[in-house]
Amino acid sequence: MTSTLARASIAASPPKNVTPSTRGPATAIAPRTRTHLPTHLRPADLLRITDQGVADVLDGRHDTLLPAEWDTTHRWSTRLYADDDLDLWLISWTPGEATELHDHAGSLGALTVLSGSLREYHWTGDDLAVRVLDAGDQAAFPLGWVHDVVNNPTVEVTGPTLSVHAYSPPLTAMSYYEVADAGHLRRTRTVLTDEPE
Ligand SMILES: [Fe+2]
User: What is the pTM of this model?
Assistant: First the structure.
């Protein structure tokens, strides 16, 4: 579970959206570069990495990072992995604690729910849409994604609600928002941070 593995996977994948050269031989095919993205990792890579992160936690590979007892009133998080391209977090969710509407600045993101159930509210452009993410469910967050994540209060679970999150490039900032009366988002503040939610 490293971004080196992710890079190897990308290198092994056939290029998509290729554009044939008009001057060279038929074999001179250059893949279209994704210069509009700040990372070579795709949302699909982040989804796979968070899925592997869940498996690693369940297999006990991060046991030394876990608390002796889960706090049932306050959220908790720990960084599972970090390099120049990626950071990976395990986050616990407790009833009644929301994250506020936020984005992830210049980072793409993804999560896999490890246990319990989450509700995600995300801004569609003129309203908030909600989706439930149960254990095993995944979600990806493209650039510009504004959302709020909460413990799902309608699902009773034993044990903590946990999810594994990946960000690429690693988080450096988050902006927070409120829904204004006119049905648009108003940014309330921007915080430099390398810690999610
Ligand atoms: Fe988030």
Answer: 0.81
